[in-house]
């Protein structure tokens, strides 16, 4: 328990000190080889240069509730980055992963609406990705958040499909514009 508290304190300090950043993974069209989008992958770069993947710190952030703070700071950075990217390429979408805890709160949609409005970003440039396991309960609150994101003009994508227990019935009730198969599913094909 004490180790998690120390770790959360270190994570809080890192967020305050700007040690979190995105590594952008391009999405390339098979038709013409052009970059059509990207995925913003969260990384923690420590002062010594060590790069910490999200699996090493996000579970503690979700347990503590600190994940919403990380989401707020990183969404702001994402919107800034999209603004810079749009100066070079306007027809691009950037995906960002959110936690189920973010979707349980109306704050995510309000925050995104504010960032988009204040920085004049086209909401169509943003894709919010959620994992299949995040929507297994498909609570009314999560459904409302997803519908509100779509109403805002943001695309919602299911990530890692095939790792959880969602059914086609669940998928048909949620407003996904795309479904990304988990690599384990693809590997079995």
Give a quick set of tags describing it.
about 190 residues; alpha/beta; TIM Barrel; 7-stranded mixed β-sheet; 8 helices; globular
What is the assigned CATH homologous superfamily? EAL domain
Shape annotation:
globular
Low-confidence stretches: none
Which structural class do you get from the secondary structure elements?
A: alpha/beta
Terminal Cα span: 42 Å
CATH class: Alpha Beta
Blueprint (SSEs and pairs):
Blueprint: H1 2-16, E1 20-28, E2 35-45, E3 51-52, H2 58-64, H3 67-86, E4 93-97, H4 100-103, H5 107-119, E5 126-131, H6 140-152, E6 155-161, H7 168-173, E7 178-181, H8 183-187
Parallel strand pairs: 2-4, 4-5, 5-6, 6-7
Antiparallel strand pairs: 1-2, 2-3
Describe this structure in words.
By secondary structure, this protein is of the alpha/beta class. Strands 1, 2, 3, 4, 5, 6 and 7 form a seven-stranded mixed β-sheet that branches. It contains eight helices and seven strands. The protein has a single domain (2-187), classed as Alpha-Beta Barrel (TIM Barrel), CATH 3.20.20. The relative contact order is 0.11. Helix content is 44%, strand content 23%. The longest helix has 20 residues, at 67-86. The model has no long low-confidence stretch (mean pLDDT 85).
Please outline what is shown here.
The chain is an alpha/beta fold. It has helices at residues 2-16, 58-64, 67-86, 100-103, 107-119, 140-152, 168-173, 183-187; strands at 20-28, 35-45, 51-52, 93-97, 126-131, 155-161, 178-181.
């Amino acid at each position: 328990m004490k180790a998690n508290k120390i770790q959360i304190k270190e994570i809080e300090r890192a967020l305050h000190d700007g040690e979190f950043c995105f590594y952008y993974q391009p999405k390339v069209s098979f038709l013409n080889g052009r970059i059509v989008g990207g995925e913003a992958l969260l990384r923690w770069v420590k002062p010594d240069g060590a790069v910490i993947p999200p699996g090493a710190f996000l579970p503690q952030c979700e347990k503590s509730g600190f994940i919403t703070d990380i989401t707020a700071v990183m969404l702001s950075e994402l919107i800034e980055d999209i603004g810079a990217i749009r100066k070079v390429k306007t027809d691009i979408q950037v995906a960002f992963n959110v936690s189920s805890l973010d979707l349980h709160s109306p704050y995510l949609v309000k925050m995104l609406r504010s960032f988009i409005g204040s920085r004049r970003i086209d909401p169509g440039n943003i894709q919010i990705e959620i994992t299949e396991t995040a929507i297994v309960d498909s609570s009314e609150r999560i459904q409302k958040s997803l519908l509100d994101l779509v109403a805002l003009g943001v695309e919602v994508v299911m990530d890692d499909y095939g790792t959880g227990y969602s059914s086609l019935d669940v998928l048909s009730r949620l407003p996904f514009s795309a479904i990304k198969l988990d690599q384990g599913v693809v590997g079995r094909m």
